[in-house]
Design brief:
heterodimer; A: about 375 residues; 2 domains; B: SH3 type barrels; 5-stranded antiparallel beta sheet
């Protein structure tokens, strides 16, 4: 038994929570789960099918691989093809198709591309290969960025001078604002990302009720957590009291993890970032501060990835914004499958298209 | 996006914790959670502990779920 995981999957308790949701939901609502980990857990545990028809769930831009634009990805692929360079990356990025190639194809053509689980592994590779520049592809939101910051501080402390970061990190509140400001998808509530919020704190989402009159619940990732989150959100919407609720209190606190935030903002500063499907979003990315610029791969290397192109017919951009669903994409399940992915949302294990393909089958959009 | 799992801290040396899950041990960094203690459950993501699980809150949350279940069952029995 896995403590603090299995207890939160009890089917009998789940059934009771579903009953509660059905009893409380009276009018149609559109709820976005921001985080890709939530999307997969919702599909995996068949939660959409348990919910009453009044509750529509939408997937948001919470998959860091999916929101990485082709411009950044092409740059990383071009860098990997530079002789002597070792590129290290989380596994999800390997198969994502860029404009003309992928890290996996570059690797097959001789580039030194290595999958790692942690920057600790990447740092060790740098120590083991002092003659090679080792670049870590920094993707991920506020959950991951502090771990990259910690690795840079460690590299500096240990005098590792062949370790670099390509920062593609992105911040979740600004992306949520961008989606709401676009006015494209009318939402009634948001399920907030549990582990991002373990770092940034539930108070970071207070702008939703305050500026948009929208309710938000911070939920964990097990079925009971998600069902309790949806119930709390529906309750808040039905009672027309927009608020932020934290039903993942075993991990999330109002102020978050101050040490992690301190690490993150010591090493990074906020900047504009390019999001797939959303374009340039102000103050939504992280770049290395001047003090740590010698760790910045973009400062150290000059590569020309060529013009960035999007796969014709691919609707990943709309899916990321929650404006379309995968079955509405002409490529979905035909040309675009997990074995032959066209867009990143089908490649990433947390991509919306992959979740639909694996779990939703031919069902309704 | 942020898969992270609660793992129990078995030992700590210089902000590196040996943690265990299903019998498999690993070493993770406590750089982001320096206050973690042996016996704590830490939320591990990409090789780092990003938070410390509040066991009291976990028990309370489960208790709430059980109370809900009891209430819903009681409702079902009402003729």
């Amino acid at each position: 038994m896995m403590k603090y995981l299995d207890e939160f999957r009890d089917p009998a308790l789940a059934a009771a929570l579903v009953d509660k949701i059905r009893g409380r939901s009276t009018r149609p609502v559109r709820i976005m789960e921001f985080c890709g980990t939530h999307t997969v857990s919702i599909f995996k545990h068949g939660i959409r099918e348990l919910l009453p028809p009044t509750i529509g769930m939408l997937s948001g831009p919470g998959c860091p691989v999916c929101v990485t634009g082709n411009g950044d990805l092409d740059w990383a692929i071009a860098l990997a093809s530079e002789p002597e360079v070792i590129v290290t990356t989380f596994g999800d990025m390997l198969r994502v198709p860029g404009s003309r190639s992928s890290l996996e194809k570059a690797k097959a053509e001789g580039a030194d591309v290595r999958m790692v689980y942690s920057t600790l592994d990447a740092l060790q590779i740098a120590k083991d290969n002092p003659d090679h520049p080792v670049v870590f592809l920094g993707i991920g939101f506020e959950t991951t960025a502090p771990t990259i910051a910690a690795s840079i501080l460690q590299a500096e402390a240990e005098g590792v001078d062949n370790y670099y970061i390509l920062s593609m990190h992105k911040l979740t509140p600004p992306a949520t604002r961008a989606i709401l400001n676009s006015g494209e998808s009318s939402l009634d509530g948001i399920v907030g990302p549990g582990h991002v919020t373990t770092v940034i704190g539930s108070q970071a989402w207070e702008f939703l009720p305050r500026d948009y009159g929208l309710s938000c619940v911070i939920a964990g990732f097990e079925p009971l957590d998600i069902l309790q989150g949806i119930y709390t959100l529906v309750d808040s919407i039905e009672s027309e009291e927009p608020r932020v609720d934290n039903v993942y209190s075993r991990s999330v606190r109002p102020e978050g993890n101050q040490v992690a935030l301190e690490h993150m903002y010591r090493v990074f500063e906020v900047c504009a970032a390019d999001w797939r499907g959303m374009g340039r979003v102000p103050a939504s990315g992280l770049k290395l501060r001047q003090r740590y610029r010698h760790f910045d791969a973009r400062e150290r290397f000059e590569v020309d990835p060529g013009p960035s192109l999007e796969a014709p017919g691919c609707l990943c951009g709309d899916v990321i914004r929650g404006v379309r669903t995968p079955p509405e994409c002409g490529l979905y399940r035909k040309v675009c499958t997990p074995h032959h992915p066209v867009g990143p949302c089908m490649v990433s294990s947390e991509g919306t298209c992959a979740a639909y393909y694996l779990y939703a089958g031919e069902q309704r959009s | 996006m942020c898969v992270a799992v609660p793992l129990r801290v078995k030992s700590i040396t210089d902000l590196r914790a040996e943690v265990e899950m299903g019998g498999v041990s690993r070493v993770v960094s406590l750089d982001l959670t320096p206050e973690a203690q042996v016996g704590d459950y830490v939320i591990v993501h990409a090789g780092y502990a990003i938070g410390i699980l509040d066991e009291e809150e976990a028990r309370e949350t489960l208790e709430i779920f059980r109370q809900i279940s009891d209430l819903m069952e009681a409702d079902d029995e009402i003729p």
